[in-house]
Design brief:
Length: 306
């Protein structure tokens, strides 16, 4: 998606953190914005920024991305306000830094209902709108380096971001024939308040457990050292303009990711598959993927509509 000026962006979680950083960058590039929020304070703080930047056309809508009917209403409200939608940015997320082996059913539902099903809700509601006007468009999924690199902590959160990566990797091939490009933004540590989503963790929200104040203090110290979310937003915009699918914002992960890729490829069996019957299917699958990849690459060409 190369021409942004005057086009319409819908950004979930767009009034705080990385979502707001992306909103600022897209607004400065000339896009008109519809931002979702859940906390009134976040909305007021975001609007105070945009009030000082009146050249950016911005509106807001309260939204819980877990609510499918509300997402559909937000999509229609955006069309009523702006006429159409060109860019969908899925940024809304919650986080849990804890071992995966102690996660409860409620923890799994809480993380996946927002981070995965919330994205699915937005795709179902907005992708038909992106296709309808025939002007091309873009879907940007904000994942995490946790969608590639796992560790002993944040297991459920990382699993949700792995899912988001899988969605994006498939979606880019599906949408290319419609002139719609896709990107996967994978930030590392960023100076946001996402750790405060712990207050909505089911056992805490239900009042059956108290928030661990030491956890909150530790997360606050850690996140304070992160990259400025506005910088993440600018790097996401730069990747979008380059036509990148993978948008990595934090260079410190390069070697770790290379080591992971080397570990994966080194783990393959050495034998020749020969002429196994299953290879007939694999040859055809790769041919179809190559055709789809050519459609994806065409969107990166100068003058492409998407």
């Amino acid at each position: 998606m190369q021409e942004l000026k005057g086009r319409i962006a819908f950004i979930t979680g767009g009034t705080s953190g990385i979502g707001l950083g992306i909103a600022k960058a897209l607004g400065e590039a000339g896009m008109r914005l519809m931002l979702t929020y859940r906390r009134e304070q976040a909305r007021e703080e975001a609007l105070s920024y945009f009030a000082a930047h009146p050249h950016i056309d911005v509106r807001t809508v309260r939204l819980d991305v877990r609510d499918r009917e509300a997402v559909e209403r937000a999509a229609q409200e955006t069309v009523e306000a702006f006429g159409r939608v060109h860019l969908l940015c899925n940024s809304a997320a919650v986080s849990l830094i804890d071992r995966i082996d102690v996660a409860t059913y409620e923890d799994w539902d809480w993380i996946f209902d927002t981070n995965v099903k919330g994205v699915a809700n937005a795709l179902v509601s907005f992708v038909p709108l992106l296709k309808a006007h025939g002007e091309g468009g873009h879907v940007m999924n904000v994942a995490s380096m946790g969608s590639f690199i796992s560790g002993p902590n944040a297991g459920v959160y990382s699993a949700s971001k792995f899912a988001l990566r899988g969605i994006a990797e498939s979606l880019r091939f599906s949408l290319a024939p419609d002139g719609i490009s896709v990107s996967l933004v994978c930030p590392g540590l960023t100076r946001t308040g996402i750790f405060r989503s712990i207050w909505s963790r089911p056992r805490i929200a239900a009042g059956t457990a108290e928030p661990d104040e030491s956890y909150i203090e530790r997360m606050e110290r850690i996140h304070a050292a992160g990259m400025d979310p506005d910088e993440v937003g600018r790097r996401a915009l730069a990747g979008l303009l380059r036509g990148d699918f993978y948008i990595f914002t934090h260079p410190e992960f390069r070697e770790e990711l290379r080591e992971l890729c080397e570990e994966i490829t080194a783990s393959y069996p050495e034998e020749d598959p020969g002429e196994a019957p299953r290879l007939v299917y694999e040859v055809e699958r790769r041919r179809r993927k190559a055709d789809a990849r050519r459609a994806v690459e065409s969107l990166r060409a100068p003058g492409a509509s998407g």
